[in-house]
Amino acid sequence: FDKTGTLTKGVFTVQKVNAVNTTEEELLKLLFAGEELSSHPIAKAITELSKKFNVSIPEGENYIETAGSGVECDSMYGHIKAGTKSFVDAPSGIIASVYVSVDGEYVGSIGIGDQLKYNSKRVFEKLRKLGVKKKIILREKKKFKVDQIAKNILAEGAYSNLKPADKVHAIED
Questions:
Q1: What is the rounded distance in angstroms from the CA atom of residue 126 to the CA atom of residue 119?
Q2: For residue range 60-83, what is the model confidence (pLDDT) as tens digits?
Q3: C-alpha–C-alpha distance, residues 12 and 87, integer Å
Q4: Predicted structure pTM score
Q5: Where are the strands (E) in the chain, listed by range?
């Protein structure tokens, strides 16, 4: 099972903002500028948050989206990168959903959350009763989150940190 939208509601919300050497508001503006053109569900959650803050988003130029890694663009703030820890080259020891840098300098991260669908655990229990012996969860991001979900719904295993193309190999395995 792919986690997002299958086992979870697929409705992301920003749950935590961690600004470094800047304000939370400035970090969010950088994120809004970097994520505005992305169609990824996490980007939609980020840009949706801009409406709550009534922030106009200055559109970035030279926008590039790298599947499974992040986005980058040039903006009035500098060259913005938002995405995975390795894509942004964020310091180790920080756990977040999206990391942000400007002109190569790490400026913060945000935590994004999603909720399990009310019937996910029940579906796994019914599959077990039907004789399905192994239920595996696939996720593009954090190992600790997918492990928590697997434990919660009694899955026999989980793969994490998968890029979209890696999911095929995980299924074959």
A1: 10
A2: 789 899 988 899 999 888 999 999
A3: 21
A4: 0.68
A5: 13-19, 61-66, 70-75, 78-83, 98-102, 105-113, 136-138, 157-159
Q: Considering Cα of 29, then 31, then 34, then 40, what sign does the dihedral take?
A: negative
Stretch (H or E) spanning 23 = none
Residues 75, 33 contacting (CB under 8 angstroms)? yes
113-169 pLDDT tens trace: 777 788 888 888 888 899 988 888 887 766 667 777 777 777 888 888 787 778 778
The 10 Å Cβ neighbour count of residue 152 is 13
Cβ–Cβ < 8 Å for 22, 107: yes
Rounded to 10 deg, the angle between the 41-52 and 24-35 helix axes is 130
Bridge partners (DSSP) listed for residue 105: 102
Q: Are 53 and 25 in contact (CB under 8 A)?
A: yes
